[in-house]
């Protein structure tokens, strides 16, 4: 069939390659349960995009996914039938167009025309009219005016208003409000979740130092003695220390909780450490480097083979006889009380890393919290059993949800009489606003880190 019709005698334009790349990455995420960072990085490498094009593609992908729920509320007022009746491919095109119109400095005429062209290329000519009409309707209001039109008023339902205005599912906001209250701190957290995170590096002790990373263009991190921030983004792999595994990409919060476990006072032997839930291996590499300095060894356990390979890759530059085991951390194959220090960085909803995982907020459900709870308790129980009397366990999650943090710790310790909570706050020197203790909750809006949680437990 010809590209020309009586209504459109000009040949169809080719779609903009950056928008096309962004749309296809979004489809991988929403259609195939992909991960935005992995899919986008691969697409940029495959298409050899860098500089402004890469930055534009990143904002298109991450921004569209981050604000997806809010855009759906706008689109529901702009489409004549329920959004659930639209093809997923068409809905993602509308979301991508809405992001350009309302949250980016893209001329509205250009944004609509480019999206119509992309629609013709990706889903066919018949759908282009609907995309054109809907996006023109979206362009008639600013972002703030759309919020006023679709969100409940703050006086009527403050948390419901924040759910639309700050692009977080209501159940997530309810959970955050349980910890922070419903005032300014909650607003600040939600705003921080919507800011792109900085690229934070870790210099693995004995292999690299922060000065080397600074010479490569980074600046010193705020809290971690091993941390540096890569200014202006860019590819961390261009830095020699990162490329060779002597340094890595690791959020500062992750560095802090691993360092806290390593530096907590311990009497007696201190050469056998265990990472019970190791994949993908960032904390494992930091702990392995630290225990190597004490002439000790790390055992890293990961149930999935492909993630165990990631752990091995992270450990490749660390000297010593460190082991990576493919196995179930809830079913130890080692004797009880074998280890001196144990990290239990348990699987969780990841609600503390919404800055860097924009799709996670819409993918997770309250049921995930309930379903993960038995595994979290089992892993913590296994960690306590694996550590010797006097030894230390760090229970860690990348979630501030109360059901995944202190409630898990209280439930496990309440069933056994051989372990006690210790005050972890002194292990974060110089870090403010750590709460009432004895556990520690880090926050994006207070500390610039992921919302990492740490409970330090000593076996008695």
From TrEMBL:
* Superkingdom assignment: Bacteria
- The entry marks the following residues as binding S-adenosyl-L-methionine, namely 277-283, 302, 328, 345
Mind listing the UniProt keywords for this protein, alphabetically? Methyltransferase, RNA-binding, S-adenosyl-L-methionine, Transferase
**SAM-dependent MTase RsmB/NOP-type domain span:** 172-460
Under Gene3D superfamilies, the record lists: NusB-like (1.10.940.10), Vaccinia Virus protein VP39 (3.40.50.150)
Pfam families in alphabetical order: Methyltr_RsmB-F, NusB
Q: Which CDD domains match?
A: AdoMet_MTases (cd02440)
Catalytic residues of the enzyme: 398 (nucleophile)
What are the protein's GO molecular function terms? Answer: RNA binding; RNA methyltransferase activity
Which terms under GO biological process does the entry name? Answer: regulation of DNA-templated transcription; RNA methylation
Similarity-based family: Belongs to the class I-like SAM-binding methyltransferase superfamily. RsmB/NOP family.
State what this protein does: May act as RNA methyltransferase.
From the Swiss-Prot or TrEMBL record, give the protein name.
Answer: 16S rRNA (Cytosine967-C5)-methyltransferase
Source organism per UniProt: Kribbella amoyensis
């Amino acid at each position: 069939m010809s590209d020309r019709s009586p209504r459109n005698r000009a040949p169809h334009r080719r779609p903009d390659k950056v928008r096309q790349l962004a749309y296809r990455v979004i489809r991988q995420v929403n259609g195939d349960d992909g991960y935005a960072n992995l899919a986008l990085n691969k697409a940029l490498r495959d298409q050899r995009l860098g500089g402004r094009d890469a930055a534009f593609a990143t904002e298109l992908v991450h921004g569209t996914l981050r604000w997806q729920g809010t855009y759906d509320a706008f689109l529901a007022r702009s489409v004549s039938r329920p959004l659930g009746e639209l093809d997923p491919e068409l809905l993602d095109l509308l979301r991508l167009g809405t992001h350009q119109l309302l949250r980016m400095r893209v001329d509205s005429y250009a944004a609509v025309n480019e999206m119509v062209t992309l629609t013709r290329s990706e889903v066919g000519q018949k759908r282009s009219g609907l995309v054109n009409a809907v996006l023109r309707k979206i362009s008639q209001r600013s972002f703030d005016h759309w919020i006023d039109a679709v969100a409940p008023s703050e006086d009527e339902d403050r948390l419901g208003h924040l759910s639309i205005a700050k692009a977080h599912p209501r159940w997530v906001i309810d959970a955050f409000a349980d910890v922070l209250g419903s005032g300014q701190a909650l607003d600040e957290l939600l705003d921080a979740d919507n800011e792109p995170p900085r690229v934070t590096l870790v210099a693995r002790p004995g292999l690299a130092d922060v000065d080397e990373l600074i010479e490569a263009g980074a600046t010193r991190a705020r809290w971690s003695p091993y941390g540096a921030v890569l200014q202006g983004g860019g590819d961390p792999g261009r830095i020699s220390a990162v490329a060779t595994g002597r340094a890595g990409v690791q959020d500062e919060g992750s560095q802090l909780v691993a360092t806290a476990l390593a530096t907590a006072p311990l009497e007696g032997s201190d050469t056998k450490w265990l990472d019970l839930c190791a994949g993908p291996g960032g904390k494992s590499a930091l702990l392995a480097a630290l225990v190597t300095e004490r002439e000790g060894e790390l055992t890293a356990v990961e149930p999935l083979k492909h993630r165990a390979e990631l752990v091995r890759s992270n450990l490749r530059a660390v000297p010593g006889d460190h082991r990576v085991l493919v196995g179930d951390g809830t079913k130890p194959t080692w004797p009880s009380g074998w280890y001196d220090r144990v990290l239990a960085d348990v699987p969780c909803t990841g609600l503390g890393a919404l800055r860097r995982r924009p799709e996670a907020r819409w993918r997770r459900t309250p049921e995930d919290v309930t379903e993960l709870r038995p595994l979290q308790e089992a892993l913590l129980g296994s960690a306590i059993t694996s550590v010797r009397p006097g030894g230390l366990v760090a229970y860690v999650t990348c979630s501030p949800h109360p059901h995944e943090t202190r409630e898990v710790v209280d439930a496990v310790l309440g069933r056994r009489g051989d372990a006690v909570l210790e005050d972890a706050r002194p292990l974060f020197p110089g870090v403010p606003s750590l709460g009432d203790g004895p556990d520690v909750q880090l926050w994006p809006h207070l500390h610039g880190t992921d919302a990492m949680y740490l409970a330090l437990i000593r076996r008695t």
